[in-house]
Amino acid sequence: MTPATIVHLDADAFFVSVELAQRPELRGKRVAVGGRQRGIISSASYEARAVGVYTPMPSQRALKVCPDLILLPHEGDYGGVSRRMFDLCEEVTPLVQRNSIDEGYLDLSPCGLRDAAAVEARVRQLQQRIWDVLQIPVSMGIATNRLVSQIASKLRKPRGFVVVAPGDEAAFLAPLDIGEMPGIGRKTQPRLAARGIHTIGDVLTRSDDELAACFGNGWREFRQRCAGHDERAVQPDHEDAKSYSQQETFGTNIVELDAITNVAKGMIDHLMPKVRADGKRVRTLTLKVRYADFTQESAGKSLPLASDLEGDFYALLTPLITKAWTQRRRALRLISVKFSGVDDGPVQMEIFDENAAKRRRLAGLLDQLNAGKTGATVRHGHQLETPTAGRRRGLARPPDERRSG
Ligand SMILES: [Mg+2]
Fold it and tell me: Where is this region: Disordered (predicted)?
């Protein structure tokens, strides 16, 4: 029989773990990461969880519940550690799907492993290697599909390792609390309990009518899931094919709209030559802002037609920033822009827009100049601010800097 090869990896208390990797002397203590003043807890050590600290919880309340809590600011290189963690996964298999900063799926079927023991050995090796290289503890679930592996990985945290053999899916799920099913939240659960549905197995004992009443339109699929069926494949992220994105963390928090707009424009200028170099166009611009306490908001807007010109997207920036940055009095710690809705069909715009054709020729010329080995970079007007001014305003570095050299 072919062994189960789908793995769900879930880092344990990820943000705290990243901090503890830098400060091992804090291991075993009640530690959390979060903003102090009006902030929230974004991650808590298992020792802190044991006394009632959870996420997201206002930091001030956490400090009341647990007065000896060691509260660290949310300032680590979480993105960098996450990338290195998934890089280690990609050394095992090319089929890696990042779900969030700290969890994702792997499919080990291309590894040619003979049996379940070989799969388990390889996954344990990876778990150990992530610890050895990054000092990040992770939990692993192995099963025949994504849903079951995901539930398995969360079952025995931290450093969990749970394997569900092929054919055992339904029996594995049946006794588990219905709240373990993705999509069943704290609000839904009491409603289900009132109907006597406490476990995942309980769902399978109910009539079609009852399930339709409880779960609405998606009830058939939900019942399938509760029986342990899930056809979704692990989809490796070829990020470049699906979207283009960049983010910038500020050295200090920023409140000026102009500064934010300029950084965002710089990102558009950084990404658009890549879009053109790939022979693509993009339609949707999504802007995300993050406050000092790590709460974030985002807004997206699409052009009527896909474009590969910076100027077409500049016009979307102000409305997007206004829409995403709802708490205008609060300073921003990070912004990111993402282009999606990638299109590589024939260009339609030029048929009725001669001006766009001219601008595209100009953009192509700029790309060529910038790709030359002169060391000089042709800049757009809004990039002409000196690096000193950027630093004074708290920018970590001018956004175009990463292109040169
Ligand atoms: Mg996690």
Answer: 374-405
